[in-house]
Task: inverse folding
């Protein structure tokens, strides 16, 4: 199958998921995850109308996205991988949305950089819904207070929560937990669901899904 067919297939499954959940058409945003793929492999997706992309490494993104963004200024780039504070300046310069704010140190570094660069990125707080020791993300119980700190003390624009459920578990309860935490925290957006479970995530209220291999092929 060609990239365009795979992309169309994902789009129609998202549309079916929206209908199945009684949600408005177009209420779920597709973030096409292009990590490990080079600019030439990404361009066909842009030509097919895709404008929102996700990457998990700052340095890799610096190698390909400045040129692609120069070709299409309406592209929206999301950072969906872990961020170190020494990369905050580069991340603020390149990305439009950062989905992986998960500790006070990085929240402060981002606040400072955005002020310095005169940019205001939209942000998500990453939640470690499965409390996995090897995984990034704030603990579920700490989420509402952390969102409040980011917003009220640091003035950040936190628009939602993001999670990556444990690989070997049924993702439904994790998606439901993220939705409850968003409600408690007073944020509206839910970034959840990947190639293997994005239809489930939509049923649980995802407002964006991060889909990589189902569009670009196996990595
Ligand atoms: C790689 C990645 C994805 C996409 O995963 P696929 O299974 O290829 O769809 C989504 N979210 C994050 C955080 C990722 O790192």
Result:
């Amino acid at each position: 199958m060609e990239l365009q067919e795979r992309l169309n297939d994902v789009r129609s499954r998202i549309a079916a998921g929206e209908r199945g959940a009684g949600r408005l058409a177009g209420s779920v945003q597709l973030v096409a995850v292009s990590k490990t793929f080079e600019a030439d492999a990404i361009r066909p997706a842009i030509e097919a109308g895709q404008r929102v992309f996700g990457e998990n490494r700052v340095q890799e993104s610096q190698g390909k996205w400045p040129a692609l963004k120069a070709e299409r200024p309406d592209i929206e780039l999301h950072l969906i991988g872990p961020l170190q504070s020494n990369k905050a300046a580069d991340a603020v310069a390149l990305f439009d949305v950062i989905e992986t704010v998960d500790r006070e140190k990085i929240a402060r570094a981002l606040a400072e950089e955005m002020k310095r660069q005169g940019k205001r990125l939209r942000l998500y707080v990453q939640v470690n819904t499965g409390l996995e020791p090897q995984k990034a993300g704030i603990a579920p119980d700490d989420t509402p207070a952390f969102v409040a700190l980011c917003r009220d003390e640091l003035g950040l624009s936190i628009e939602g929560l993001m999670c990556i459920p444990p690989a070997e578990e049924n993702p439904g309860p994790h998606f439901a937990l993220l939705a409850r935490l968003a409600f408690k925290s007073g944020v509206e957006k839910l970034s959840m669901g990947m190639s293997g479970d994005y239809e489930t995530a939509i049923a649980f209220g995802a407002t964006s899904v991060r889909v990589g291999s189902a569009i670009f092929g196996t990595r």
Notes: Residues 130 and 166 are 6 Å apart (CA to CA).
